[in-house]
Amino acid sequence: MRRGNVYLLIFILALVGFALWSVVPLDRNVFGREGLRLGLDLKGGIYLVYQADVSDIEPDNRDEIMKGVKGVIERRIDALGITEPTIEIQKQGEEYNIAISLPGVSETEKAKEMVGRVSLLEFREQDAGGNWTPAKGTVDDEELTLSSRYFKENTYITVDQFGRPLLVFEWNEIGAQLSQQITGRLVGKQLAIYLGDEPLRGADGNPIAPVVQSVITDKGQIEGLSLVDAQELSRLLNSGRIPVPLGRWVEKEGSNVFEPNIPYLEGITRPTLGAENIQKSIMAAVIGIVLLLLFMLVYYRLPGLVACLSLGIYGVVLLAIFKLIPVTLTLPGIAGFILSVGMAVDANVLIFERMKEELRGGRSLAAAVEAGFNRAWTAIRDSNITTFIACIILIWLGTTETLSAPMVSGFALTLLIGVALSMFTAIVITRTFLRLIIGSRTVSNLAAYGVKPVKTK
Amino acid sequence: MIDFVGKKRWFFLISGILIVAGIISLAVFGLKLGTDFASGTSMTLQFIPPVEQNSLAQAIDELGYGKITPQPEGEGNFRIHIRQITSEEADELAEELVKKLDSQVEIIAFYSVPPAVGAETAHNAIIAVIIAAVAMLLYIVWAFRRMPSPFRWGTCAIIALIHDVFIIVGIFSVLGGLAGVEIDALFITGLLAVVGYSINNTVVIFDRIRENVSRHISPDFAVTVNSSIVETLGRSLNTSLTTLFVILALFLFGGATIHNFVLVLLLGIIIGTYSSICISSQLLVVWEKREWSTLLPWAKRAV
Q1: Residue of A nearest to B89 (CA)
Q2: What value does the CA radius of gyration of chain A take, rounded to a whole number of Å?
Q3: For the segment A169-186, what is each residue's pLDDT rounded down to a tens digit?
Q4: What is the pTM of this model?
Q5: End-to-end CA distance of chain B
Q6: Which of B125, B195, B253 shows the shortest C-beta gap to A397?
């Protein structure tokens, strides 16, 4: 047994051990990675892209504002306890899109509401004609409307002595000044609260419009809401306000019209379909791979067995890589994985065919193995280049903002990683095992290598 | 020894018929573009109890969504591609379908793609195909640099490649015309993934031909080529077989969502293997022996 082979064997065993440790069980947390990351087509979920109407915002401030939008949506989603959401701002020229992916969510309406939800409470007073108009005050020579814009983001829910929910808020500096002016002149009169253009309604369905008892400067509370509404409102208020309208631009009668709250791009997969997809892919993978292993065993005998072993190692290491990077698995990604297993065998087939030829040519086992690997190496390298080229181009194509993009790049990425790893397993792992077996002289019958013994002339 | 080179006329004839049929189909039916490229809304509807494809198509037409061919996708499921609607409108459509078809409908997948995105994806897909073509060409130039006449060998490999693409696209054109099968971004993905596969097989065989030419195994180029094909046959078939096993399993048992994608891979591997064994090397022989004119049907057969 050569020393180099022993070192390689130790290295391989360490690699397999590490891969197994990080993969089993699949949902264990390793280096902050929890389980395999599944795409929307496998886990089910919602993908939404909104266009932002930034026409009212100074071009220089747009980047900042959009970052704020992202933050607000993130906080709202967090509050709902959705795991692994991704929220991305996509800037295309002068346009801003916001892409939201919510794995595992199936309630479309709720998801959309969360994004489109108006969260600005506006205080209104009654004018002489009885209409509710925004309650305004003046701060630093500027006329401002009293609204939740001046709340501190620390609203909370409490209950009064009768067990009724109260939404408690604090004014910031500007809010305190405004409130002092407005409540000062409205003592004994009603102050209504509006959510967008609609009055905020209490548990009894009536608009909430309390009578001002005294001048309010720092703190206030809203009474009469149902507990659920109060909690929802508090959450929205604390997560902040989305400062730009989100929706889509549509062409209507020759001009561009902005439709708020309607997503520009929308994709929904029900988790049931996702679960079915996973189950079927796993079954297909198992059947395909078992057939493949049987074929290798029957056709190539002992080297086939070695190839099966290295394929097993290949599978475990690949899963570990997917989990650690992490690669988001999609349905085509699984196809890419399965295809790469099929292709991984290719390297072994190339080597074994060469080996057989060398054995038939009357070479010794050890010489045949070395010649098989050396001669097959260029073919393996060359034959994988086209796959690499295709994968890199596909990963680029997968950057296009479309629904199938994650599928395209998912396939290309898994195939790329798979093929690269397959070269390593064939060259390092299969070769080491074969050298060790031959070096130990346990199996020297040529029939075990799928070659009829050559009769000595 | 199987005579792959001697039967070249048959192979050329079969491929010729397939390609011409594909071109006719492309001229008649064109290609049906999916939501990725043509935009609009596509959704997968689950019906309990199952409904007939025809009655679904009719119901959708009656509701004003145009004439479409619903695509069966798994048991009781159909995928439909209509103009772009929102998910709220889709829910209304589903309710209408419940009334019309007397079956419970659930939308299990929904995609809506605006025209601008569809156009961009189509644009990018075309760029991807062009870049891939150039990259493969460069690869071929590089891979054949040691061959006796790189240009000739490279051209034969490229003809085989174009042959594969034409046949696959042709088959999908026929499927589109007859069964309403659409091509999407995954179709392009599958196509790019398998053309590389076909070139690989060709390169391995050509490499062996080069080796055998330098070993002077026969004065006749046709014999040299044929024995090269036969010597590498085990490798060519086994590689394709192992890959076919797994792809076939995916095709038969995998999820319906990627059925057409897996079909591209399946066709690509079969056709790619066929063209590398039966077409590319034979072209090399014809070129070497300057037999082009004998391929024409009216040419006298060399005895």
Answers
A1: A262
A2: 33
A3: 888 888 888 888 888 888
A4: 0.81
A5: 21
A6: B125
